[in-house]
Specification:
The structure is a homodimer of 340-residue chains. The first copy, chain A, has 8 helices and 14 strands. In chain A, the strands form 3 sheets. Chain A has a 7-stranded mixed sheet with strand order 9-11-8-12-10-13-14. In chain A, strands 2-7-5-6 form a 4-stranded mixed sheet, covered by helices on one side. Chain A has a two-stranded antiparallel sheet with strand order 3-4. In chain A, strand 5, helix 3 and strand 6 form a beta-alpha-beta unit. The first copy, chain A, is globular, with a radius of gyration of 21 Å. The two termini of chain A are 36 Å apart. The interface between A and B is large, with 81 and 81 residues. Strand 1 of chain A pairs antiparallel with strand 2 of chain B, so a sheet runs across the interface.
């Protein structure tokens, strides 16, 4: 029997022949098995409980592949689950497509798949279909993962940026900047006394609880690439309303703040992978806070600001800790490549 | 105004900020626009006409990106449409995820997206959701594309490898090996008097016509990676029945045959991108042939063989042109990397 530690991906593993089948049977399926997937076929057959669906996709190219709090597999499962969740849907099925560089260690592939399988099981989402491609050495950086996802809309929810009105409160479920600062610090080889940890997590359980129990939720969004700054600017731009947030009310981990300061980043523009904002009518804000704070992923939930009428061009305005004001701009985009 | 020829993808185009938005608005959306996509959001909202769905995904890493008969974009749209089609579904929505290397020419990206948009429009399938990631130079080979797709099952179809019985006929809609031999010849810089051309095409229109008009269709599959050899071996392995095919009845383009001979390939193991086999009860075989031959993608349709009981281990047996017999094995997988 071959020493598992030494097994590597070969180009032929992506050839669609005998070796592809062995890779699937011995290394991939055992980690993500479920009833639908086991039928194989190029397409999965699904019976969905509703005709109202959400559909989303994301590719993951994060570097490094393994980081404190997760890995590319956990990210790929959570990210797509979260995109469905904040759209007001309950995720039901994921696809999984791998692009792997010749020579990649199969035991690392298995660890990544184990993470995907665990998140899928914890959130009652099946990986129902997939694809494995290989490319020669130097043609890809180790492994890239794509997941697409189907969710069914939660009845009686009707979220949309167009529903947002002046006076609505903006709530976040916890600290910002953790994922991005963990990745960049690990990449730069910087260590802190209290270690940074990615917030990577699947939000479905909490978003479903909120949507099923609170009226008055207008919009949800997970501030990933571009961070809170990008999400809030998108709201301002699309709604024509301004957003006013208070620095004092935005939860930030102390080490994340210190790391961001040291490396010259604005935590508001840093990617999160287990956070979402909820825009809610003022009379429902406390209900969102209460439900969130009872949930493991919402203990530090805060109202961080509100939507206001804009006399001129809509902007995102931050009231700083010392009472000053600054405009939070849409990030340009070059801050943090390969963060997810 | 910048010279369009010189515009290149930057890492910041994948940052989720201002530059990502500009790339989407100026270069991506115009090529693939439709009503659902224009709503943006991280998830698309879809109302599907049936609860019985098919769901599939494929990543495309073909090299070269542009080839006679198509490009990576056409391949990415057709491939996923075809996986749904041969599963007995009518494709309704695709996702599109791009991984692009820093420095990739935006005018090439636009050509690729134009191809995707054209196939989508021709087949009444919307690109409803997407993702764009960038990686630094050397971390990917130009561009990789993932498409996932949702289809609705065609009523009263019930395809499955388990439905196949001894006596069933195997029909292919045209010549085999065109796509793979086109790619490998172009890669090796070999030219022929009569040029090779990929068969890359969307099969939906023909598969739907067949499924809506012919009873007795048991199974369909598009022989892509691993070619006819892989597909027929999968049938033998899964059904426990043998497959007998006749070399004389398998349509092969003369130049493809010559190229395969010269380069030492077996056309049966070469990838196709616009072909599918239909396994059908013997009394319905003529109907499949008739409908196929009236369709632009089925003019050269042929019954290439049949399913037979196997006295021992199920195999795929080829009756050669001179009346000899040889076993067609499952390809190992290393024949043709990055063929799709």
């Amino acid at each position: 029997m071959a020493n598992k530690e030494n097994e590597k991906i070969l180009l032929a593993h992506g050839g669609g022949g005998q070796l592809t089948e062995e890779l699937l049977r011995n290394h991939i399926f055992p980690k993500i098995q479920n009833k639908t997937l086991s039928k194989l076929g190029d397409s999965a057959e699904l019976t969905v409980p509703s005709n109202e669906l959400c559909f989303t996709t994301d590719s993951y190219v994060v570097k490094p592949l393994f980081f404190n709090g997760g890995d590319i597999g956990k990210l790929a499962a959570c990210g797509t689950i979260n995109d469905l969740s904040v759209a007001g849907a309950k995720p039901v099925a994921l696809s999984l497509a791998l692009i792997i560089e010749d020579g990649f260690e199969i035991n690392l592939l298995e660890k990544i798949l184990e993470s995907i399988g665990q998140i899928a099981r914890e959130n009652n989402v099946d990986i129902v279909t997939g694809d494995t491609k290989t490319v020669e050495r130097g043609a890809a950086d180790k492994i890239f993962i794509n997941t697409a996802g189907i969710g069914v809309k939660i009845p009686n929810t009707n979220l949309g940026i167009d529903k947002i009105e002046a006076g609505d409160k903006i709530i976040i479920n916890g600290t910002v900047g953790d994922h991005g600062m963990t990745i960049i610090s690990q990449r730069e080889g910087i260590k802190f006394d209290s270690p940074l940890k990615s917030d990577c997590a699947a939000l479905t359980d909490l978003t479903c609880k909120l949507l099923e129990n609170v009226n008055g939720i207008k919009f949800m969004r997970d501030p990933t690439r571009g961070g809170l700054a990008a999400t809030l600017n998108e709201i301002a731009k699309s709604s024509g309303l301004s957003v006013k947030i208070k620095e004092n009310d935005i939860p930030v981990d102390k080490t994340v703040q210190a790391a961001a300061g040291m490396l010259g980043f604005d935590v508001l523009a840093i990617a999160n992978e287990g956070k979402f904002i909820t825009v809610v009518s003022p009379d429902s804000a406390d209900e969102v806070l209460n439900i969130s704070r009872k949930h493991p992923l919402g203990k530090e939930a805060m109202i961080i600001g509100e939507v206001v009428t804009s006399s001129n061009v809509p902007v995102v305005e931050l009231v700083t800790r010392i009472g000053g004001k600054r405009i939070v701009q849409m990030p340009y985009g070059r801050e943090l490549p390969r963060i997810c």
